[in-house]
User: Fold this.
Amino acid sequence: MTNSTTLEAVLVGKAVPFRLPDTVSAIDKQPVERPVSVGPTGLTGDEQGDRRHHGGPDKAVHHYPFDHYPAWRSDLPFPTASTELLDAPGAFGENLATLGLTEESVCVGDIFRIGTATLQVSQARQPCWKLNHRFGVKDMARRVQATGRTGWYYRVLEPGMVAMGDNITLLDCPLPDWTLARILRAFYQDTHDIRTLIGISVLEPLAMGWRELARRRVESGKVEDWTARLGE
Assistant:
């Protein structure tokens, strides 16, 4: 991984009624060109429609690689999918978009200076059913999960300001063996890789919910049901 890259876009969104009754979402985030302050709960002006599953200190900021957009454009069924969403960053409800950082190179616990803020990678994204409706593809959430093209979340170590064009600099990589891709493979592909799951369960920088998920799978020997989350 390069030590520095550039922020291609900063995006925020308001929680508004979504596709299903009594459902709201802020997945439709829009780019902002002015500097935006970022604190422990995320970017100023950004909202979450479902605070039980989104937001909070370990999911304060969502980063999605713009690197993945060409693959999605090739993979998605045409013309049924809303492929026009892939014309610019924001299709996946991300707050930050870059070129040059992906799940294969970013590790849990990585600390980045982005603008004047310091952020730490806390977990990968667990895709949910809202992606199915956003793209008009009934299994979009499962596709995101299966490919490992999920993006990731940050916790905020030092508040600051971020803006399009800012440098993103890697300050520390305390767990270079634990890429997000490795963790995602253990959760969603090699689902009974007990040795890796045990290792995941004790990764201190990893969000507690993910550590507990690994521990429960090791103890039970069973893979959790993804049906409700993926909308199947």
Observations:
- The chain is about 25% helix and 25% strand.
- Residues 208-220 form the longest helix (13 residues).
- The two ends are 36 Å apart (CA to CA).
